[in-house]
Structure formats: C-alpha cells, structure tokens
Amino acid sequence: MRQKNYNYLSDSYEEIFLRNIIEFNRKANIDRKYAVFYPSLGAPKKDTPDFLIYGQAVNGWEPVFNVSEDIQQQKLLKIAIENSNDYYIEKDHSPLDWVNVYWSKGNYSKYITSQSEREFYPPKDYSTYRSFFWNVTYKLICRYYELDENSWEWSKKMVWSNLYKIAPEENRNPSDEECFWQEKLSIELVRKEIEEINPKFCIVLTNNSWWQPFRERLKTNVLTVSKEANSIIQSYEKYKNTKIIVTTRPFIGNSNNHANQILELIK
Fold first, then answer.
1. What is the Cα 108 distance to its own chain's centre?
2. What is the rounded average pLDDT of the residues 137-157?
3. 3-class DSSP state for residue 216?
C-alpha cells in the first residue's frame, strides 16, 4: 500500500519553484515537453542532513509539461513533490531508496517480490550502478559515516537536487539557451535549498562551468581553486554555514578516487 509521507521545503520555496516553470514556459515559446525536478529529501523530517548533493539536471523524470500548453500549477507541484519524495514505508525506505532497488537487475529481483512492491517500484530497463553520480554519492556518504557500503543507510543521510530543475523530456541536458531561460530563478532555488536545509556540505558533482553562474550570483566565499587541469576537486567554497565542494563530472571516471578526494577535504 502506497503511503503519502512527503517531505518538502517551504511555501516560499514552492512559490519560486512554480514561478521558474511559468517563466520558462513564457520564454520557450515552442512545442516541446520538459521534465520538472523537485529536490528529493532522503533524510527524515526530524533530521538535519549533513549532505546536499547536486547534479546538473535530470531528464526522464516526472512530471512533464508541454510549454505550448497551459500549466496546471498546483497539480504540477503536487506531482513533482510526490515523485521525488514519496517512499515505501512498509520497509522503512527513504525517498532515495529507488537508487538501491534499481541498482541492478539482481537487486530488483532480490528485494522486490510482492505485488504491492512492484506497484511502487515498477520494472525499469535501467540500472543505477551505471551512474557515476550515484557511485560517488553512496561511496562518499558510506565512508564519511563508516557505514557498510552494502547497506542502504546512506540514502537517509542526504538531500539530492540538481542545479537546473527543468530539462528536456528526452535523454539530454538542457542546452545553453534552456539553461538561460531558467538561470536566475534556478540560482534562487539553490540559495533557498542551502539556506533551508542548512547542510554541513554541499557537493556539486557537475564541473566548474556549470557552477560558475551560481557562484557569482550567490557570492560564495571561494576558499581554494585548483590550478591543476586534471584535478577532481575544482573549488572549495563556503556559503553561510555550508562548505561547498565543486568537482568534475566525467561521463566515465573512477568513483573511488572522486569519493576519497572529497572525503580527504571534508573529514
């Protein structure tokens, strides 16, 4: 049985979230579908997570809206929150345990055995172990807290977000133009996320060029910047109480090296 146990951010955050979609819709002026992403708060409501981890943008997500059609704002917001933050309470899952469930075909077969579980986690032709982002994320958190890397506890220790909340429905990142259409309010959403969640660490697994406009608008305190071309850690910054670590995001890379270099810096 699906339980409604959503975690979510403030009303003022939601107002900016919807305004970002409306502004994007107005500027796009094309007939195309886009996916909308709301942050996924893996940590329980009672906890303040140490980690807020950013990707670039996410496609293949829900809900989806067509910029040529009228937007049902509250319905879109409700689905966005639910899709990122609903969780399977019967097994004490977190909203991020879909990463563990879909890690491999073997994991799915092992852990999803009942009809109600299959309804919550329908079969997908996708294995999350292929994701460099999720490999770095779970290894970093497990090693920081000295957790068993085969356990699922890491998913309750973090919040997952993306710098840009709107991305093409098809399998690609937003173009420069599509980023520009949402850049100003995307930066405000990131500001609100950091301030409301107040994590110890904000890990930006994107690369320096994706983070640059956020750095400039947020006016972060840049502590160090790497001058080495091949450095995994590209900058180390601070915004209010939160330390920000910006890293490279290779399509194929060594996730152990990434996780360990971040760990050396923060622990």
1. 22
2. 96
3. helix
